[in-house]
Amino acid sequence: MDQDDYEALLELTAQCQLMDLEELRAGIKGKSRVGGRLSDLEFSYNAMEAEARATLQYIQDRRIARGAQGASQEDVDLINTIAEIERQEQADRQYALALSTDPDALPPPPVASLASASRSGFGSGSADRNSREESPSGSSGSSWPWSTAESFVSSPASSSRSSLYEPPKPQASTSKATFIPSILRLPHGRSSVDCVICGDYTNQAYQAPCGCFYDRQCLTDLFDKATVDESLFPPRCCSQQISFAQIRSILSPQLVQKFETKSEEFKTTNRLYCHNSTCSRFLGPAASTEREKGARLCTQCWRTTCSFCKSAAHASHVPCETDTAAQQVLALGRQEGWQSCPSCHHMVELDTGCYHMTCRCRYEFCYLCARRWKECTCPQWDENRLVAQAERRVVRDLGALPEAPRPAQLEARRHDIFRMVEDLRVNHECDHHLSGFFRRGGSGNCESCGNWLRDFLLQCRGCSMRVCVRCRRNRL
């Protein structure tokens, strides 16, 4: 079995494994979670899925590497061909100069036979050098104004006058040329760097405005994810935006078009989507007043939507109807104490922490009054929520108490919670990037995105918040 067949078999096996996992998970949906924790069966399914996807990624990386290697060899062959043509033209020029100096010195060269004569050894420079070295004067006796052995090989001591100029032979390439886009070239003096996302060392990386390095795959992956996850838009690292204009040359045309389309959508505050639930295509900004309303045609499902009430289009003289479902959600939000973002009007819920809210549209506001942050006199946190968050942090770090704790254990736990509460009071608005992070081994849930990480999390040195690498670099 050759390498391609082995990779195809391995790829098919991994794909079948993923399909089997989907069927198995469908059979246990709603039965396996106890207290919000993963069961052993789900944990094993997650591990099997990670291994299968890693196998598929490995096969894809090998194919890309082989393709890049073949492209590099084609570039080398093209460069050698161009160099050979330039050497041939230089040889023809010197031959013409020699004929103009002494027309009888050399016969006309046969057309298109110069390279073949060079390869066959006809008119080699070594015989001419030997004849000159045997001359008492050490000169070739030529009247030409140059005497390099690689120039013309006609000599009075030579028995033949049919010698031709031999162009320098191309030297064998000892290394393959690799084209590196300017945006991925490393700073002077650095041969390799490690990617801040995957940790791999690479000799081609983009340096973000904050100084972090991204390899090409991770940078592409960030912009791709930013088109489906608004919390990652605009793409940034350490709170500094990454310029799309700088790196668009290394993205695929499909991703460039997709990102530009999504950029227009995510930058729109009051958005209008197709009312067809199976389509929901972005149609541009919605009308701010009923006087400006109109019908917008969706070019994907060819249905029209009212630009003000965002339901099916109707006659302009007909008043817009109230969205009953939306009103029910708003009523539920008021009942549960939820708040809506003043900018994009998305509903948000505060679980723990202070009242400083940062919506996924990047708008910052007060959770109590919905005004822009620091433009109101509301308290900055709720004491009960602060204590609840402190208790969670202590249990996370020290573990839960036994069912029948001793008085000394209870006293120590109260002291730990009190100390954590005071830390949260001071660091409730922690500048995570200024405080810095350190790696903490072990599994756990990211406190920003909620994803479960198997191996490690990053913990803020200021507020003790634990997050994944993606959130630490691209969300916070």
TrEMBL record:
Pfam family, one: IBR_1
Record's keyword annotation contains Metal-binding: yes
Residue ranges with Low complexity bias: 112-127, 136-147
Segments forming domain RING-type: 191-382
Database matches in InterPro entries: E3_UB_ligase_RBR, TRIAD_supradom
GO biological process: protein ubiquitination
Molecular function per GO: ubiquitin-protein transferase activity; zinc ion binding
Keyword Phosphoprotein: no
Coiled-coil regions listed: none
Annotated region described as Disordered, given as residue ranges: 100-147, 157-176
Protein name, as recorded: RING-type domain-containing protein
Source organism of the structure: Rhizoctonia solani
